[in-house]
Amino acid sequence: LQKELLKYKQEARNLQGIKITSPQDALQQRLLQQDASVLQLKQELLRANMDKEELHNQNVDLQRKVEERNRLLAEYKKELCQKDRHLQQQQTKLDEMLRELSEASYQQVDLERELEHKEALLAHCMKREAEE
After folding, report:
1. How far does the chain reach from its first CA to its final CA, in angstroms?
2. Where do the coiled-coil regions begin and end (predicted)?
């Protein structure tokens, strides 16, 4: 049974393409596999670090853009407040002018009535004088 087991083990090794003739060769083969695995892990770590650095740079760039947009937004808000104040002042002036215009219109109507009344009085006086 042991001979058969050794035979099958040897056959399996041959099928896998690994010819190990001594325990030292087996250790060397194992070290080569581990070195390859370590090299692959180092490459993956390097790629991950590069990706991390790229993401960090993108984050810094995005934060700079957000700060710039926030600064612009603050400036626009300030300008808008100034324009609102100016508009409010103009609205107040317009309201005052409309009130004055309304008063002037009332005064004009009163003066026109007074003029009509005086013209009527004058016409009446002229008529009376003409009659006398």
Report:
1. 167
2. 38-114
CA angle in degrees (0–180, nearest 5) for 17-11-23: 70
Give the type of residue at 128.
R
Q: DSSP assignment, residue 17?
A: T
- Return d(Cα 68, Cα 62) in angstroms, integer: 10
Q: Model pTM? A: 0.50
Give the C-alpha separation, 93 to 87, whole Å: 10
Tens-place pLDDT, residues 24-63: 667 777 898 999 999 999 999 999 999 999 999 999 999 9
Domain hosting residue 64, numbered range = 1-131
Domains of the chain: total: 1
Tokens for 30?
A: 């194992």
Backbone phi, then psi, for 20, in 5-degree steps? -110, 120
Nearest to 16 by CA among 31, 33, 39: 33
Dihedral of alpha carbons 13, 16, 19, 20, sign: negative
